[in-house]
Amino acid sequence: MSIYVGNLSYQVTQEDITTVFAEYGTVKRVHLPTDRETSRPRGFGFVEMSTDAEEDAAIAA
What we know:
Layout: E1 3-5, H1 14-21, E2 27-31, E3 45-49, H2 52-60
Antiparallel strand pairs: 1-3, 2-3
């Protein structure tokens, strides 16, 4: 399962997201989509964690 994270700053990096979500468990993957034409981040992303329990804890927090 992936966690959708919206309303992100265009300056946020994968490392920033990993740092925040690491409080709740092991982060397997962070994906921040970019605009095809401008290559600018689109302001949202997806986070995958090791277990469903960790994902649930992050969502609850």
